[in-house]
Amino acid sequence: MKLQVPDLSPLAQRLAAERKRQGLSRTQAAAVCNVSTSFIRDAESTPERCSLGKLLLLVQGLGLSIQVLGWGDDVPPTPDQSAPSNHPGHAA
Prior knowledge:
By secondary structure, the chain is mostly helical. It is 43% helix and 0% strand.
């Protein structure tokens, strides 16, 4: 089975729009997000070619978040079906 890369142009547009909304140049955003300026350019044009880890650095650095709702045809778990949290102070 060959996987098809999804169209990530909406992500690219949202990243560029948020960077610009914050008044950040690509160089400034790169410094804040701990990535290279060329990575910012790539993320805003062809994010499907970027690593997920670095995309997450950019997303978090811009104060955004990404939510995974499920895996393929799976239904997202309800809170009572979720795995226990690893947050400090959480009793397992």
